[in-house]
Amino acid sequence: MKLILCFLVSVLFFSCQQSNNDHNIYGKWRVKFNSGPMAEVRFHNKGTHDYYVDGKLFSSGKSIFKNDTLKSYDPICDGNGEYYGTYKIDFLSGDSIRFNAIEDSCEPRRFDMDGAVLHRIKK
Amino acid sequence: MKMYFITLLLIAGVVVLSNSFCSNANALPKDDITLGKQLFFDTILSSTKKISCASCHKPEFAFADSSVVSPGVFGRMGVRNTPSAMNLNSAAFFFWDGRATTLEAQAMFPITNPLEMNLPIDSAIDRLTQSEFYNKAFQQIFGEKPSAKTLGKALAAFQHSMETSDSPFDEWKTNDNESAVSESVKRGFELFNGSAKCVKCHFGTDFSNTEFRNIGLFNGKNLNDSGRAALTQNTADLGMFKIGPLRNIALTAPYMHNGMFRTLREVIDYYDQPDKVVGDPVNRDTLLSKPLNLSEQDKQDIENFLLSLTSASLEKKRL
Q1: What residue spans of B162-287 are helical by DSSP H?
Q2: Residue B319 — pLDDT band, cuts 50, 70, 90?
Q3: Yes or no, beta carbons of B170 and A59 under 8 Å apart
Q4: In this complex, which of B165, B200, B204 lies closest to A55 when CB atoms are compared?
Q5: CB contact (8 A) between residue B165 and residue A52
Q6: Is the Cβ pair B205, A50 closer than 8 Å?
Q7: Rg of chain B's alpha carbons, rounded to an integer?
Q8: Is the dihedral of CA B236, B92, B252, B298 positive or negative?
Q9: What pLDDT, in 10s, does the model give residues B66-102?
Q10: Inter-residue contact B217 to B260 (CB < 8 Å)
Q11: ipTM of the shown complex
Q12: pLDDT, tens digit, 9 for 90 and up, residues B35-73
């Protein structure tokens, strides 16, 4: 009985861990922005992100990812100081996510990101 | 007899070789890019037949010029520094004052400008039509005789092809090669994106943005180029110029619309303390209202970051 219980707890632990792994945004993503271009987005686990267009870096910023929320700072947004826009992330399936703006006063970013669907680029 | 055969063989060889060279020289361009390149380097498009686009947009300087302003026909001097003709695919405007909105339209201006190539477009088209080579080339590539439209298309096609993305910076950021650049370059990029505020204007794939800004190099006196305002007749545009792309910037000195800064360090020093250089600017952007107070190390780091934007293939060709 003890053995079965241990086994079940282990299964539960590993499946939860698997699920957590699925629900992260780190890595490379492809997205079609509302303003037109196809872009590649890279979220790094050190808390930064990079956007690429036509194979060239477009902009770099900082991001804080927690649970299903992303806070994003992009220096190309106007204003002084580090302003972070906040987005809810829908994990649509194992390999795509959608951003929904919760609060973002940076209009160009909101225009591009609100509702944008990102597809994970497999290695 | 032996000597006779050797002589014959030599003559035949010379004939074959010279034919081969001649036919290569006259070979028609295979596409619009090749045709555009040929036109770009051809003096046929200037009134004196002594100036080509490449006379000012020199390949060894990333298709910019090392002079403050470039001489046109009869040594006539313009008033603005020659910008690089490379990495323009993301540009929304061309020329320092943004007078053209497409590369096709842009290509016509220097040809007709009396201070540059000084050739009316009709005359340029007439010359191209009279040229058996160009007439055939345009027919083959565009299916029609040379015209202003197809001339613009060919020159624009060549310029569209001049994109670079093989700098040490690209190797670091795009190809994830951490050892491609020094720690100083990385710090410089952080400053560029942060406290030095460069990114507020210089962002995008070529660090250029698509806007016009007044960085304080207009005072209506000794610095009297009003920039975009001369075109729009809008006083709000006084002293505004197109934000220049930064790729290959190390090769395109001198800097700014009037070429007043000889080195990247002078540019960085200016942005650090603009009032020290121009104390009475008109309509200067508020981004420059306070000194940056960069340290010597900061300045060196930013300069190293800018140097890291030089295309490896361009650098190789220069060596």
Answers
A1: 168-173, 183-193, 229-232, 264-272, 274-277
A2: confident
A3: no
A4: B165
A5: no
A6: no
A7: 23
A8: positive
A9: 999 999 999 999 999 999 999 999 999 999 999 999 9
A10: yes
A11: 0.84
A12: 999 999 999 999 999 999 999 999 999 999 999 999 999
